[in-house]
Fold these 3 entries.
Entry 1:
Amino acid sequence: MPTLPEILGAVQTNCDISDAQHAGDYTLCTYLLKMREYYRWEHDLSYFATVPQDDLGVWLTAREQMWADLESLPMTPVPVDSGFADPFDSEAINRELVPRGYVYSAGYGRFNKPLFFLGNLLSCEERDGFTILCSSCEYARELAAPPAMLSGRTIFARQESARRFVWEKIDEWRWHKQDNAMQRALTSYGFRNDEAALEQMTSGALDLMILHELGEGLIDRSLGESWRVMVLELARSRAELVVRSVRDHLADCRSTLPGLLERNDHGLLHFYFANLDGLRRALFTDLQDAYKDWVQNANLAPLRRAVAHGATHWFDVAHRLLAAYKKNPVTARAEIEALLPEPARPH
């Protein structure tokens, strides 16, 4: 039986290769923020500890040099009892790791970036026909580190990555301290730079993310394999960002937002809208208007109507785009990109 250090070495190597090949996908600002938090994770620093800037600079230079040496390498197989497993065969690897108290996942993210992680198994549950594997401490990860990811009928929920995600949003708000959805979320949780409130927010955020992944799993039944193929073939284009946003809105209107509204969880609703930004926000202005109505008038009825309408609207949009892509993948890009708000359309 392979030891944990042997498995960990292979997984982290694949994480490093993925980062080496995709670090250029980020804007400079996003890249530097992610690297700072990656340094914090690798050096096991508390979120309330200051990152030493001189050490960070030295580490960053060394990391980029290491990536230069790894960029052209293929992904390495993961050692298992029977020999070696394909690094994307999460099911086979977890058959050995889950009984030992660990969890592993692999998949693809934005711009077709390979995503890997290995962590301590915190819990395992069945919900709505899906298996939810939740991890706590992460032993290996790459730069993106999504807090939750769907793979087949399994949802991988990562507590440590969710905590990091929440902290990044808090840290970002503290730079400007605007009167916005994030401030309302912090007020709802009584956040005062304390660990207890951070943990409470992390737990809520992870629940929100699981609801989203459940939504994606449910709509995948109707969108089918053709949607996944379309997203992969649109990788690294503006059209990819559009179809991902459409799918996100459909999942949220079918699962995430109905779940939050049913719970009447105001803190999580504010946190959801604090993270509704960029293209997703621009594509669904009716939802943002309904949120403002709730904030100003304490009336959830417009929000409920916007969610119900969105469930139908985004279903129709998704199937229209998929039909256009099946008919002609080349001309479909223009139809997909036509959904972009005017200022964001490419010239």
Entry 2:
Amino acid sequence: MMRFLFSFVLSTVFIQTSFSQQELINVLSLSNGSYIVKAPSSYSYSNPTAMDVVGWSPEALIDGKKNKGWCSAGIKFPYEFVIELPEKYLIEKLGFNNQCEKKLLGICAKDIKIEFSTKGAETGYVEAYKGTLNDYGNDTSMVIKPQEARWIKISVLSNYGYTKCVELMEVQAWGKYVSSEIKPIDISGTWETNWGKACLVQSGTSASGNYEHNSGVFSFGGIERRMVTFKWSESTGKSGRTVLVLNEEGTRLTGIWCYGNDLTKYGFWIFKKIPNEQCEVKSTEAAITEKLKKELDEQGKLIVYGINFETNAAIIKPESESVLKQIVNLLNANPALKINIEGHTDNVGEETYNQQLSEKRASAVKDYLVKNHIATARITAIGKGEKFPIADNLTELGKAANRRVEISPKIN
């Protein structure tokens, strides 16, 4: 029997900085939702259903790992990559790693050009940087004049003389969201993915679905901004987690997946919307409650996404109502069950502040349950702050996975 996890989103970030002071994000990253629109002929290609990115493939240029990079298939300059970002960013800094294979003299990329566009993948590009990379150069970064970008074109113009191919290990672009707020999103519909067709259904900040490969199921997921978090499970007994980001047009979900809950080791998952093709995922309140209890019994905890808060506050947003009611249903259906509610954050902001805010938000969830006639003695609210991440805090999707609530049975 397949196992399910009911997920919610603990939204808005646990930070004390304002939007204008937000941390810079490496937007050229698979684990931040970047999508490769165009890539040149390459030495290798990543298997879209593999657990990891293949070295010397286009994806290895933006996988965030220094030990893997891109390599061309032959020599025919220029080599062009076009990367789509999920939304507009104000780019302030570029980064490069050019530590190629030292046994192949002259293979490293030399002259490079970076261009930004806000108009489309094929038009409207403005040069942001043109220069020469150091031969076998380690991590280098440079501040540039801030420019908006939705698409980034990377052109490798030459190498250091090797006549068979060219290598480049990593390119980064660091920026901030252009818009602090976005319109409500809806991921409902049918999608083509690298694991077969998927059906997704959204209600408020919760979502569920299924996909073709091994009768896969997305257990009830949660939405924060453009980010969607699910637990996936298959008829083989395998299960894990995925965090995806929706692009501005609502036509593509791009992100990462893992086995279990360890999102520090991941493959990539791409969903492309099939226009005007609807689907349905049936699930009654009783069935949801049963899945929650089963997961709690089998795993010893529920990893919870989908409860959205006001920025830097413990005020629960109204769209979280349906998610919270399902916790109420779980407790009403199991009157002997007592629970711990743990609040977890990412590492943005001061550790002390994150600890305090996680405590307040866990208490806010408890207060909601008590107001809905759950005895206060059955619930303990605990703040865990940033101490127990399940993903890499260096990426936005990793941070989203770390911002969570966990529910576990309380002893006595």
Entry 3:
Amino acid sequence: METIIDGRSVKPTAAQTRAVLIGAGVMLSLSMGMRQSLGLFMLPITRDLHLSVADFTFALAVQNIAWGVSQPFIGAFADKYGCRPVTMAGTIVFALGIFFMMTATGAFGVMLGAGVLMGVALSCIASNLAMTASARAVSPQTRMMALGVMSAVGSLGTFLAAPFAQTIIADHGWHAALLGFLMFCGIMLPAAFFVGSADKIAKANARAGGGVSFGESPSLISVLRDASHHRGYITMATAFFVCGLQLVFLTTHLPTYLALCGQDPMLSAEALSTIGMFNVVGCYVLGWAGGRYPKHILLGLVYVLRSLAITAYFLMPATTTSTLIFSAIMGLLWLGVAPLVNGLVAQMFGLRYMATLTGMAFFVHQLGSFLGAWGGGLIYDALGSYDRAWQFGVVIGLVAGVAQMMASDRPRPQVLRPAVA
């Protein structure tokens, strides 16, 4: 379909769409793979730098809160000026975060690198902008499937990064493993460049009649006002808190929990890899299901099923078999929430301010991540056990799941109106 932009004939090609999706997939996969493998560094870094577990988990908590606080602003910047400058700058800042973590001599250096810098960088290169770019690059009919595939591809990074990091830590130390992560950043940079083509495709599709166009869409203020009064959006954003708490608690503290249970350190990497492998299936299935069934119902079911799985695992003795089965179940329910949340935002408010609105919901998600990382460390340091931490996560997970299933998914009226040709 051909359209006119700024007096020039523009026809988005399949190659352009593929470039956006591949670039977003590589960027998301590597950034999330490295981020979700940071728990493997807890024991060697705290031992070598003479830090407490709470010191390290506070750095990861700062990462999550920095990610959450910066995400709405970075999303708004990308909505206004495009994805490319944001994703490329974010890749560079992420590499700087790894460098500062690698050269740290105490708690402050770890917090600056793994906390502040990585947190801000993830606002630029992780799920929010990768999903936004993917949604803009495809048609409405294939949007949910594309988001599901993107989430699935994003999980492959954990399948790669976790065993890669654990093997190098065991053979050469944690500094060498972080150097390997810097090499991953070199691969991410050209991928981040191609993600920027999504803005051109979205404008061309919009002016050709593919929905509310960028030039004729309502103002950001009016959309934010509608969002603040939309009960479905408020419930979704509030329930998203539980997602962050449960997932970051597991990625941060599962390696330490398994060490307390006398398990081989490699089991932690195998568990994270299993999560990543089964997450591919879970994301694809949930993305497919989100195009056919109510997304808010599916989201609520994910939160409830996660909580039941956590309960069953922590009530049993931790063995290799139980850990890998638990990891497989959690993998099926892991990042599959991403296509559902992004698809629900697009359904309720359209694509124009998708990065901003998902960024605001993600801020609440990161408050949960902050509590899951640091709170888990505080409970462990105080009680010598993770029992109270997982019990709290299960209770609020069940509450959030039921509330999410009862929420509204009503689109705002402007989304139902076709674009002016």
